[in-house]
Design goal:
- The chain is mainly alpha-helical.
- It contains 9 helices and 5 strands.
- 45% of the residues lie in helices and 11% in strands.
- It has a 3-stranded parallel β-sheet, with helices on both faces. Strands 2-3 form a two-stranded antiparallel ribbon.
- Strand 4 (159-167), helix 8 (168-177) and strand 5 form a beta-alpha-beta unit.
- Helix 1 (4-22) packs antiparallel against helix 4 (95-101).
- The radius of gyration is 17 Å and the shape is elongated.
Length: 208
């Protein structure tokens, strides 16, 4: 069963992600966002200092997000949404704009990005996006420094789990592909391919 703290975190996940996207320089347990395309080769600074890791030794469990936190897929996400927008005659959005508007319910993000669901369904656009993402997702890398942080937390014998708006099946596949399965006692994802439409979609995890 999930702990009370786990449940409270589920309620706060949207707020945390909105702040993370809007402020890439926050110095807490989170990633540093990058501005280059996902295909480019570059050296990242560690996304969190080991000093920050030492500060969490008082905790018994650390809960991670996956997309954009462990997996560096921002460039890919922006490229796909701009491809969909181009097909509809809409102008591209920047990485900065993407970070500013992304959030949950994901349908609201699509509307903010310029999609008109009076002309087509949210499900149609969502499936199109997912199809493109699934083709390219393994071209993404992990955020620089994340493996070292996982190792450090593991060395303190602190449990780690993933709570994600990503598909449960695909999440397990990707965690295994990147060789991270041994770090996590649990990986919780959604059954829907559209990501949570509301916080109630996240709360279903309490039943696990």
């Amino acid at each position: 069963m999930l702990t009370e703290e786990f449940e409270k975190l589920a309620d706060k996940i949207t707020l945390f992600q909105k702040k993370a996207y809007a402020d890439p320089m926050r110095n807490s347990l989170q990633f540093k966002r990058q501005h280059e395309p996902f295909e480019s080769k570059r050296q990242h600074e560690p996304f969190v200092s080991l000093l920050s890791v030492k500060m969490i030794r008082k905790y018994k469990h650390v809960i991670w997000d996956w997309n954009g936190t462990i997996l560096d897929d921002t460039g890919l996400c922006v490229r796909i949404v701009n491809m969909l927008k181009a097909k509809r005659g809409q102008p591209a959005i920047s990485v900065e704009k993407y970070r500013a508007i992304f959030g949950f319910p994901v349908k609201d993000y699509y509307i903010a990005a310029g999609f008109d669901f009076s002309r087509e369904s949210f499900e149609e656009v969502g499936l199109e996006w997912v199809h493109e993402y699934e083709k390219e997702k393994f071209k993404c890398g992990l955020h620089s420094g994340v493996k070292e942080v996982l190792d450090a937390i593991y060395s303190y014998k602190i449990g780690q789990s993933i709570l994600s708006a990503y598909s449960r099946r695909a999440l397990g596949e990707m965690v295994g592909y990147y060789g991270l399965s041994d770090y996590f006692t649990h990986s919780y994802g959604l059954e829907s391919v559209y990501a949570p439409r509301s916080l109630s979609d996240i709360r279903f995890l309490r039943r696990n």
